[in-house]
């Protein structure tokens, strides 16, 4: 990690000059907000904005291009935060994420390219969606750091059967969730800490082993994105160990409180999945997974 | 119906003087917004506001008491609409709905009382939630009137298994949906018309016979609230006739387009159910079903 990068603007400038953060932007410019980026032809903008408004937990819309085709200024969707506080002067949405993905007529055309200058047109609209990095900092600060941070892994992310409220062309999508294991006795505190981050997924949407079934998650040890979850020692699979432990100790209240259970949050992969599923025509762009756009606003600016 | 009542204020004054609209407020003061009313002890206000923010389709929050204990002014949760445009000077939230329900420690204490003057304290906060009457007017205006209006019945409402995103004390709740039958070929038009009414449930959240299963609806002909749905002639049950017709005509595209299918919207009973399920302590109040608070804002003021 480059410790000389302390602001969002510095992180963006390094990305723009293609001295790229190969491992992604996790941990860069601590305390600054990072955003999922989705860039659509303008005819889909209303439906997408509405999709976010109807599903704010998995799709928290932070900002969008100030006008159609505008690549250097945004309007804010956050109360009491201005667009130029989110992305300040001199930003370039086409170049300031470390890596991008380009889709044409819903087929992947370029993977992990350095910029989208050639693909951007005056008909494109960029959307910035909140990311859970924000509340992870807050959890770590109170002694409840997410497991995957301690182990240097990516957060596991799962497809679910929980349906989004549809919006225009965006139909049939389902929630994607991220998972962090916590002890049962810590769940209320974890809920409380993350609740304030309403613009970046907020409090968990479900928790416990029953939630795995309710959400229709296929295999807790085989996430669709990110790294497989591990037990606290980083050696055993999370799911199997826990199920075994649970059946051994099911009558012991103290042991039950100590048991680790999966805790699920809405995930910013959700809108990307919804966009891919919609079969859009034309050129759609996004940041490459983990290679977020680092903003000028701080996590605390968005916490209610 | 009293045709001399043409404004929201007039409707409220009749309610206040207990010359009550016995059949409820449906059709009163056409074009004026009607609201579901939920009044909570202030310690639950943050969690409830957040519940609405996380689940805007079934729980569209329009406004709330201007301050704790305030019964005659609201602050708006709608962009570009002021609180005093929603409920103007002289309103009295304790008396201006035709009938109220009162719960103490989550048990029903009074049903259909004329006011809640005795129960209201300076610790209570009132919340106004959007109602689908708004978009029904718009549907009727383009020649797509909801079936139950034509038959003079109440809209059927169903409990579903689709879970709300939890918020603090409000956990484990599920969506309640309202249903209006439409021909398959009219669904896109119906979606388009209701989409603009984002502050009052917006476009449908699901449709078709498959949706009945996806939503975990027990019996399409036995709604949990409102009246059972009828076929177009008002004589046959909606569910059985349609299933039969479907199996007869399944290979005929034109017939398929003409087939009536159930179309589901988020329903304002959802937040009431969530409140009842939370087992709150103290005095909680609400309007009596169908006896809404009529506002000073017009449906069109809230359409995006």
UniProtKB/TrEMBL annotation, chains A, B:
<dbReference type="Pfam" id="PF07286">
    <property type="entry name" value="D-Glu_cyclase"/>
</dbReference>
<protein>
    <recommendedName>
        <fullName>DUF1445 domain-containing protein</fullName>
    </recommendedName>
</protein>
<comment type="similarity">
    <text>Belongs to the D-glutamate cyclase family.</text>
</comment>
<feature type="compositionally biased region" description="Basic and acidic residues">
    <location>
        <begin position="232"/>
        <end position="252"/>
    </location>
</feature>
<dbReference type="InterPro" id="IPR009906">
    <property type="entry name" value="D-Glu_cyclase"/>
</dbReference>
<dbReference type="GO" id="GO:0047820">
    <property type="term" value="F:D-glutamate cyclase activity"/>
</dbReference>
<dbReference type="InterPro" id="IPR038021">
    <property type="entry name" value="Putative_hydro-lyase"/>
</dbReference>
<keyword id="KW-0456">Lyase</keyword>
<feature type="region of interest" description="Disordered">
    <location>
        <begin position="225"/>
        <end position="262"/>
    </location>
</feature>
<dbReference type="GO" id="GO:0006536">
    <property type="term" value="P:glutamate metabolic process"/>
</dbReference>
């Amino acid at each position: 990690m480059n410790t000389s990068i302390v602001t969002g603007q510095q992180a963006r400038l390094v990305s723009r000059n293609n001295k790229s953060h190969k491992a992604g932007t996790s941990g860069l410019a601590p305390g600054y907000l990072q955003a999922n980026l989705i860039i659509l032809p303008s005819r889909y903008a209303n439906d997408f904005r509405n999709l976010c408004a109807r599903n704010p937990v998995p799709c928290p819309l932070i900002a969008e291009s100030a006008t159609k085709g505008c690549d250097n200024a945004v309007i804010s969707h956050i109360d009491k935060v201005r667009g130029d506080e989110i992305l300040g002067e001199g930003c370039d949405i086409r170049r300031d994420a470390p890596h991008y993905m380009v889709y044409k007529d819903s087929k992947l055309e370029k993977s992990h390219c350095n910029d989208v200058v050639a693909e951007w047109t005056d008909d494109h609209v960029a959307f910035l969606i909140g990311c859970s990095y924000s509340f992870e900092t807050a959890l770590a600060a109170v002694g409840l750091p997410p497991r995957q941070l301690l182990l240097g892994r990516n957060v596991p992310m799962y497809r679910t059967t929980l349906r989004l409220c549809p919006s225009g062309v965006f139909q049939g999508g389902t929630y994607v969730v991220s998972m962090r294991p916590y002890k049962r006795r810590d769940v209320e505190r974890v809920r409380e800490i993350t609740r304030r981050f309403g613009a970046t997924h907020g409090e968990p949407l479900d928790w416990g082993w029953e939630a795995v079934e309710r959400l229709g998650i296929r295999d807790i040890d085989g996430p669709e994105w990110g790294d497989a979850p591990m037990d606290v020692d980083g050696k055993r699979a999370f799911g199997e160990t826990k199920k075994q432990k649970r059946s051994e100790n099911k009558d012991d209240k103290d042991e039950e409180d100590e048991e680790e259970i999966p805790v699920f949050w809405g995930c910013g992969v959700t809108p990307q999945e919804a966009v891919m599923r919609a079969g859009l025509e034309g050129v759609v762009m996004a940041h490459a997974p983990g290679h977020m756009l680092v903003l000028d606003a701080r996590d605390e600016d968005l916490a209610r």
